[in-house]
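Notes from hallway chat w/ T.B., transcribed later so I don't forget. T.B. wanted the structure written out for a chain they're using in a teaching module, and asked if we could keep both sequence and structure tokens in one place. Agreed to drop them here.
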Amino acid sequence: MAFATDLKRLREVNKRVNRSLPGYGALAENPSGIGRETMAEELGFDGLFWNSMSAVADRDFVVETMQSGARLMQHMSRWAEDVIIYSTGDFRFVILADAYSTGSSLMPQKKNPTVWNCSEGRVEGRVGDIVQIAIVVLSTPTIQQQRMLEALTPDTLATELPDYLVSKGLRFRKRHHISGQVVALADREGIAMDKLSFRQLRGVDERFLEDIESCFDYEWSVAIGMAKGGI
């Protein structure tokens, strides 16, 4: 009965954690209007994360899975202890098969329940693992405001350049190459990307138009991330 309950619990955990991640990012949202629900369905997920920060910072799926697994191992350990006791000479309710036991060098007739001994001793380590991962989750803040403000530089918006190029008809797989050329140009000039002139950007790729300046606006960057599940 305990194992049936464990199986039910694991299935319930799977329903909660089996949510789609593709299209999320801690830093950059997806402005391309991708169909996240369709993608989740085709990949076999049961639903979406409805907040991108939660999607990339959440570790509940790890803790929940480990907790359910530890309960299963706890019941297996208790079952193994019962098998060990009931296979002794005092009870002899269970006769161990040779394939699942080892012999004794001193008493050839004796069968050691090695498999069950190993099962019995594993649960303590798994419980310790749960405590360790819980401490890691507690000690890791979701947002560190001061560090985020310090990191708010024009280079942070480098991810907007590839999306801009896609909106101008460039194939998705080629966009990062051109964006990398822009970053390299800014490094050679010793200036931030938003300080590059329109002429310099056009020298990298003619698909850059005057509206490229909007890519270096933080509020615009947030506003275009309108896909379901965005921040």
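Follow-up for T.B.: The beta strands are 19-20, 47-48, 102-103, 111-112. Might be a good example for the class.
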